[in-house]
Design a protein that fits this description.
- The complex is a heterodimer of chains A (247) and B (232).
- Chain A has 9 helices and 10 strands.
- Chain A is an alpha/beta fold.
- The radius of gyration of chain B is 20 Å and the shape is globular.
- The model of chain B has no long low-confidence stretch (mean pLDDT 93).
- Classes of the chains: A alpha/beta (247), B mainly alpha (232).
- The A-B interface holds A 48, 51, 53, 75, 78-79, 81-83, 85, 87, 89, 91-94, 101-102, 105-106, 131-133, 136, 149, 153, 159 and B 127, 129-130, 132-133, 135-140, 143, 147, 150-151, 230-232.
- Chain B: The chain crosses the membrane at residues 24-49, 61-86, 98-123, 144-169, 203-225.
Chain lengths: 247, 232
C-alpha cells in the first residue's frame, strides 16, 4: 500500500522534554489506523503532527512521497484532512450551518452545499435537527454533527481524537455502529486515537501502541492485541481484563 | 416630583419647538460620541483580539495598563489631552484645544481601554482546542477571525456598549478640553453642568432626558444587533 503520510525521525519537544520520538511511521491509503496508549503517552500530539496541525521539532513529514516544509503547510494540503475531537466544539448556529462550515470555507456554491449537507444529515440520522441550534444538542447528537462536519469535506484522511469517549455506553455503541458503516462505504482513510480497547478493537484494522512518546508496537489490530510485545503487554493486559477480544 | 414632571414637559417643549440651540448641542453630542466610539472600536477591537489570542513578552504589563485605563478618571484624561494640545504642548501647533476634535480625543482616551480590555477578555476565553478545530476545518487566518468575531458577537457588542456608555456620560474631560463654548464645543453633559450651576434645574432636567433618550436609542440599536437571530 502506498503511504499517504510518512514520518521520518520526528521529534516533538516542549520545555526541554521530549513528547514524541518517532523514527518511522506511515499512514497508508484505505486503512483505519488506531493509536492507543496510556494518558500522556503522546497520542494526541502524534495525531496533530500527522494532520499538519502541530509543528515537529525535528525530522521530516512526507505527503505522497513529497517532503512538506516545516511550518509552511499549504492550505490545499491542510484541506485534504479533517479532524473530529473528543469535545464536539460546535459553533453557535444551526446544525445545518455547522455541518456546512467546511464547505463554506472552501467557497463551494450554495446549491452544492445544500445538497451535500442534506446527504450527510441523512447518513448520520440527524435530518430532523437541521434547523436546531447546535449548542443545545445532547452529547450523542452533538458528536453526530461533529462527525458529519468532518466527513462532509470528503477528507483524504480523517483524524479522530477520542470522539466517542465522552458518550454513555448505549449512545456510544449506536454511534460507532453507524459510523463504521458510513466510513466503510465512503472508504475514507482514518486515524483514530483512543485509550479504549473496545473502540479500537471494533473500528480499526491496524494498531500502533504508543508509550512515553515512542511507538512501541504496530501491526494489524488483532495481531497486536493478541500478541503484545514486552513494551506493550502491561498496558494491553490491563485492558484485556475488562474486554474480551472477539471482533 | 413636580420638578421631574416640569423637566419632562420642558424636554418635550424643547424638542417640539425646534429649539435650534438644543438641536445643535444634541447633534454635536451625538456626533462626538459616535466618532469617539467608532474610533475606539476601530482601534480597540483588533488590539483586543490580538491581545486575547496571542502571547508575547510584555503582554501582561500592557494588559495591566489597559485595565488601569478602564478606570481612568475623565478629569485626568482631560488634563493629559489639554497638556498635549496646549499652545506649548507637543501638538500645540495643531490648535485643537477647545474644539470638538479635542473632546473626541479625550473620549477615545477613556473608552478605548474599555473596548480593548473587554474584547481581549472575550477572545481569551476561546480554547486552544476550538482554534485547532477551526484550523482543521480548513479556515485561513482571516476566515478564523471572521468565525470568532461572529461567535463572540454578543461579547464584542457588549464591549462597544460599555465604551459608548462611558463616552456619553463623560463630562469632566469634555469640559476641560472643549471649554463648553456655545455653538462650538457645548455638548449635553457640559450644558447640564452649566445649567445646574446657574440654578436652572428645569432646563438641566430637560436636557438630561434628551441625553438619556439618546443613550437609550443607541444602546437599543446595539442590543438589537447583539440579540437578533438567536436560534434555539
Amino acid at each position: 500500500m502506498n503511504p499517504l503520510v510518512e514520518l521520518n525521525n520526528i521529534t516533538v519537544k516542549a520545555q526541554n522534554k521530549t513528547i514524541l520520538d518517532i523514527p518511522e511511521f506511515q499512514i497508508c491509503a484505505g486503512e483505519f489506523l488506531g493509536i492507543m496508549g496510556p494518558n500522556g503517552a503522546g497520542k494526541s500530539t502524534l495525531l496533530k503532527v500527522l494532520a499538519f496541525l502541530e509543528k515537529q521539532s525535528g525530522g521530516e513529514i512526507l505527503y505522497r512521497g513529497k517532503v512538506i516544509p516545516k511550518g509552511n503547510v499549504p492550505l490545499e494540503l491542510r484541506r485534504k484532512f479533517s479532524i473530529a475531537l473528543q469535545q464536539s466544539l460546535l459553533l453557535d448556529g444551526t446544525v445545518f450551518h455547522n455541518i456546512a462550515i467546511g464547505l463554506t470555507l472552501r467557497k463551494l456554491p450554495k446549491g452544492d452545499i445544500k445538497d451535500k449537507v442534506a446527504h450527510w444529515l441523512e447518513l448520520f440520522g440527524i435530518s430532523h435537527l437541521a434547523k436546531k441550534n447546535a449548542l443545545y444538542l445532547s452529547g450523542g447528537e452533538a458528536q453526530r454533527v461533529n462527525l458529519a462536519r468532518a466527513m462532509i469535506v470528503e477528507p483524504e484522511i480523517l483524524f479522530l481524537d477520542e470522539p466517542f469517549s465522552a458518550l454513555d455506553f448505549p449512545t456510544k455503541i449506536k454511534l460507532m455502529e453507524d459510523f463504521k458503516g458510513i466510513i466503510e462505504t465512503a472508504r475514507t482513510t482514518a486515524v483514530f486515537v483512543s485509550h479504549d480497547l473496545m473502540e479500537i478493537n471494533y473500528l480499526t484494522n491496524r494498531l500502533a501502541i504508543i508509550v512515553n512518546g515512542e511507538v512501541k508496537q504496530s501491526g494489524p489490530t488483532p495481531r497486536v492485541l493478541e500478541h503484545p510485545n514486552s513494551s506493550t503487554a502491561s498496558f494491553l493486559n490491563e485492558w484485556k481484563k475488562f474486554y474480551p477480544l472477539a471482533r | 416630583m413636580e420638578l421631574l414632571i416640569d423637566g419632562i414637559k420642558k424636554a418635550i417643549d424643547m424638542i417640539l419647538s425646534g429649539d435650534r440651540e438644543v438641536f445643535a448641542i444634541t447633534w454635536l453630542t451625538l456626533k462626538v460620541c459616535l466618532i469617539s466610539i467608532l474610533i475606539s472600536t476601530f482601534i480597540g477591537l483588533p488590539l483586543g483580539i490580538f491581545l486575547g489570542l496571542t502571547r508575547f513578552k510584555g503582554r501582561r504589563i500592557l494588559l495591566l495598563f489597559i485595565n488601569i485605563g478602564m478606570g481612568l478618571p475623565p478629569v485626568v484624561a482631560g488634563l493629559w489631552i489639554t497638556m498635549l494640545l496646549w499652545r506649548s504642548g507637543p501638538l500645540g501647533d495643531l490648535t485643537l484645544l477647545y474644539s470638538p476634535t479635542a473632546i473626541v480625543m479625550a473620549q477615545i482616551l477613556v473608552s478605548l481601554p474599555i473596548v480593548t480590555s473587554l474584547t481581549c477578555t472575550a477572545f481569551q476565553q476561546i480554547s486552544e482546542k476550538m482554534l485547532l478545530q477551526i484550523k482543521a476545518l480548513g479556515a485561513t487566518r482571516m476566515q478564523t477571525l471572521i468565525i470568532l468575531i461572529k461567535q463572540l458577537k454578543i461579547a464584542i457588542l457588549a464591549a462597544i456598549m460599555a465604551g459608548f456608555g462611558r463616552v456619553i456620560a463623560e463630562v469632566g474631560a469634555a469640559m476641560m478640553v472643549g471649554g463648553n463654548i456655545l455653538g462650538d464645543t457645548r455638548i449635553l453633559t457640559t450644558t447640564i453642568v452649566m445649567e445646574v450651576s446657574k440654578g436652572n434645574f428645569d432646563i438641566a432636567l430637560a436636557l438630561s432626558f434628551i441625553l438619556l433618550s439618546l443613550a437609550l436609542l443607541i444602546t437599543a440599536a446595539l442590543t438589537f444587533l447583539q440579540q437578533r437571530k438567536r436560534i434555539s
